[in-house]
Specification:
InterPro entries: Wax_synthase, Wax_synthase_dom
Radius of gyration: 19 Å
GO cellular component, one term: membrane
Shape: globular
Largest sheet: 2 strands, antiparallel
Low-confidence stretches: 108-126
Protein name: Wax synthase domain-containing protein
Strand content: under 5%
Family: Belongs to the wax synthase family.
Subcellular location: Membrane
Distance between the termini: 46 Å
Mean pLDDT: 78
Order of helices and strands: HHHHEHHHEHH
Number of helices: 9
Length: about 230
Amino acid sequence: MAGEISNFMTVWTLVVISLTYCHTISKTVPVGTKRLLAISPVIVLFFILPLSLTTISLGGLTSFFIAWLCNFKLILFAFGKGPLSPSRSCSLAYFIPVACLPIKIHNPVESTKKEEGPCSEINERGLKSPMNYVVKCLVIVAFLPAYERKVRVHPVILNLMYLVHVYVGLEVSLAVVGAMVRALTGIGLEPQFEEPYLSTSLQDFWGRRWNLMVTNILHPAVYLPVR
């Protein structure tokens, strides 16, 4: 395990160095094919780096963050689009976390223009109220006795409890990451989920409530070019 942690630290050190390079060249290399060629070694590297991690917890998350999410953002960045542009007006402390983490900058103006806003209460910094997270954590705590007696719990109910557990774990973990980024950079962040259990349809679930960062990246990177 010690070797895995060492590899993990090495991987993310290389990620920070690579993103620093991308941020630096953006000041001299114009958007378009030239910038894409300039950052293409970084994109290839981000596909290779997660292969040095063998555990699901570290390797899986790293693969999602850099090989998938970050690479899509870098491709958009090469053409002057996406959350990393305009790069000239953003600091390195902004560029790195936004590039490799599933976060989106909170824009109050855009939020007021949405026809179908979130059902949960969100403050001006893009965070849900602390009570929202407390209630969800208490639900997970209430599940713990059932896990200890899972032989007596119906498998369907147990699987539903696991799904809720995974969702709450993701939301709380991403909220913690967002709070850390906000503390370091002063950037307001939008939540990644909009109460998906309140979805009225599959489209509502996937397009408006579940993993919003992925939706916001796929739309300009995949949907619009092939439309």
